[in-house]
Design a protein that fits this description.
Blueprint (H helix, E strand, L loop, with lengths): L13 H30 L3 H31 L1 E4 L3 E6 L5 E6 L3 E7 L2 H5 L2 E8 L3 E8 H14 L8
Helix pairs in contact: 1-2
């Protein structure tokens, strides 16, 4: 089967956003492990607890190394395209996934923007169907808003005034 790249890709700032987010998570994890080492020393835990903590340190270091490699690989693998009938999403590093969502099955479309994404003027799009939800991460803000409007129009979604 021949692989065909879909029409649109993520924002070029996606790797930076992902790296910053992963770094924050890794720092929190490192603080937890350091706290556990302090508890190990303070309470004189048995030797087997030391080896478990060492395993956690090695696992954390490998996770930190992967968090520097993964964002670029994810950015290269993500693509999507849409028309009046379907939304197609393609992503994955080791396991490539192709998702085709018929416009008639879309029930809700929303945008998500956290503080890191706000700094880079990007948003994520969340597409909800009856049985699942799919997210397209880190699109330029204007593109994300236009995509949300287009998908809502193609899926014939109506705004609810509260």
């Amino acid at each position: 089967m021949e692989y065909k790249k879909l029409e649109h890709t993520l924002s070029p700032s996606f790797p930076k956003i992902k790296l910053i987010s992963d770094t924050i998570i890794n720092l929190v994890g490192l603080l937890v492990v350091v706290g556990l080492f302090w508890l190990y020393d303070y309470f004189s835990w048995p030797t087997w607890a030391f080896w478990i903590l060492m395993f956690l340190i090695v696992f954390s270091i490998l996770g930190c190394i992967w968090s520097f490699i993964e964002p670029t690989l994810l950015y290269r693998s993500w693509s999507y395209q849409y028309d009046h009938n379907y939304l197609q999403i393609s992503f994955g590093i080791m396991k490539k996934q192709w998702i085709t969502i018929p416009m008639t099955k879309i029930q809700a479309v929303s945008t998500i923007q956290g503080p890191i994404m706000q700094r880079f003027n990007t948003r994520s799009i969340k597409i909800e169907t009856m049985g699942s939800a799919h997210t397209i991460p880190a699109l330029e803000e204007s593109i994300a808003l236009q995509l949300r409007e287009d998908l809502a129009e193609y899926a014939k979604l109506k705004e609810v005034d509260e």
